[in-house]
Every structure is written in C-alpha cells, then in structure tokens.
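Archive transcription. Copying these from loose printouts into the bound notebook so they stop getting lost. Printout 1 of 2:
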Amino acid sequence: MPIAPQGREPDPPPEGAVQPPRGDLTQPGPPAEQAEPGPDAANGTAVPDDDYAAALREAEDRWRRALADLDNLRKRHVRELEREVAAERARTAAAFLPVIDNLELALSHATADPGAIVEGVRAVRDQAVNVLERLGYPRHAESGVPFDPARHEVVGVVQDPDADPNTVVQVLRPGYGEAERQLRPAAVTVAKRE
C-alpha cells in the first residue's frame, strides 16, 4: 500500500479486502482470547489475590475446627456409651442379687425337709423369671400353641393323635424374649402332619 504524503488521508482499500487493525482501537493488555474472567467478573469488581487467600485460610480454619468438634463429639459419645453400658450391667446384676441370696439361703437349709427345699428352689426360679420379665424378656413355655418359627426351635417331631398338626406338644427348654429382643427361642417338639 502506498504511503500517503503528510496531511493527506490514505486511499480506501478495495472492496472486500482485509483491513489491518487500526492503532486507536487496540487496548493494552493480553488479547481477548487469553484473558480469563475472574470470579468477580459478573459484578465487574476485581478482588486481589490476598483477599482470596484470606478467605481460603478462613474456610480451611472453619473446616479444621468442624473436624475437631466432630472428633471430640465422637469421643464423648464413646465415653458416654461405655458409662451407660456399665450402669445397665450394674442394674441388671443388682436385679439378680436377691435371687442369689435366696439360693444361698436354700443351700444353707439343705439338711432340712427335702419338700421344703424343692418349694424354696421353685420360688427362687419364679423370682429369677420375674427379674427377666422386668428386664423385658418374658418367659415362653406354652404347649398346645401353634408352632411359630420366630419363637420356637424344633428339636423333635412326634406323632400325637390328640394334637393338631404343627402345634407345640412339649417344651423342652423355655424361651425368653419377644421378636427382635429375644434371648433364645423355646426348644420344642411339634406334632407331625398326617
């Protein structure tokens, strides 16, 4: 392109020709494709890196404190649970102390009348069953009831013409508890189906 003499405008380029950028339209700084908008580009304010670093340090500090609080809470919960288990164990053992006292009393009278000793042992057994019931584990030793796999464990099947099929004929070992809170199922024999 010929250079125009001083004071004179250059000739316009031919139609459709690519024009070089004009010097008065360019802005200093990186080209538009390389510049990345910052997090505050939406509101047009620029935040220095120091503010971001301070906010990051504050967030990390809060995060570390929350983790420490959670760890302390977990440790406190474990200590409280251990204390509660120990207290419950002591309450349960204390509930059985009268049973042990009565068994010792029965043993001290072992030379007395055998009928009285049997009655005493039966009373102590009833007392122990009552303690278990108060702890939430009632006794199940019923015969003639329909077989329930949640409450009964079959240890034998017998032919009994007087019993309905699939009913408990004899309880060999009583069960204690209900559904999910069961210490053990009752060991039973069941009438055979014909």
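Printout 2 of 2:
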Amino acid sequence: MNKLYYIVCDDKETNVFEGRYQGRTRGEALKFLKQSLGRKTLNGLVFTITEIPVPLIREIVAEILAGGEGSNATPAANIVPLTRPEPEASPGRYDAFADAAEPEPTPAEATPPKAKESKPVKKVGNPGHGDEHWSQVRAHWEECRSVKQTAEHFGLSPNTLKTRIRREGWNK
C-alpha cells in the first residue's frame, strides 16, 4: 500500500527541497530525495520525511493554539491535558507510636519503577532449601544417580537439580 510522504530538506539556512512523494516505504522516499537533489549522500543536510503532510500539522497546531475558533468554525479535537493534578496525600503518623499498619501509599508510591526483585517468587514444586521435598528428591537421586529421571519424577528442571546437587555437594 502506498503512503504519502512529505519531505523537507534544508542546507544551512536555505530550503533545498520541499515536496511530496508517494511510495511504500520511508526508504523509498529517502532514495527519491537523494535522486531529486542529485547526491549520493545527504551528509551536511537537515531533512525530514514524514507520513503526515507538514502543512496539515501546521493547520492543526494553529487551530489548537487559537482555541478552535478559526475561520472554519469546526470544533477542536478533544484536548487532553499533559499533566494531571497531584492527588493530596492522606495524613498519617510516621513516628514510634503510630499504628502497626502502614499508611496507604500515594499513587506515585503505589507503582514503583520496575526493578530487579530481590527474591523471586517460589515456584510450586520447587520449595526452598532444606524442605521435605528436597530430601525426597535427594533420596531418589541417590538411588538412581540420574539427573534426568529424578527431574522428570519430581517435575523439576534438570538444571535446577544440577545446581542443587553442586551447591549441596550430593556427589560426595
């Protein structure tokens, strides 16, 4: 499907090229610009290739800045504010005599940035160190001495089992 691209190219302060190109990709529009200028590269030039025609963007921006009361008298698009007002933090006690329950976090605190969790959530069938499950796994492994069979029998990853064997020194 062909798209309409609007191309603007400047060399220092002078406009070298401004026009439209209809093609499938931005790369084709770039090649068209090089051919139109008769250059192999566009080094030293400032250019933009956009799918939406720049004059249309200028009209939309001018209408929004004018408050939608242009000569066309068309209603302006729904404008969403860029910033939202900060909700008021709920008052709470932060001293030694405060209740044991923590105060409700503010929306900014409720969604902390994604960071590496300190401890992963334990998987079902993969309990922590010293659990009864691992003593059964170890007993089975000592009988058959097969990582693959033991892992399949208990529904574990062979690599998990190998790590546990190495860490706890089951081979000794």
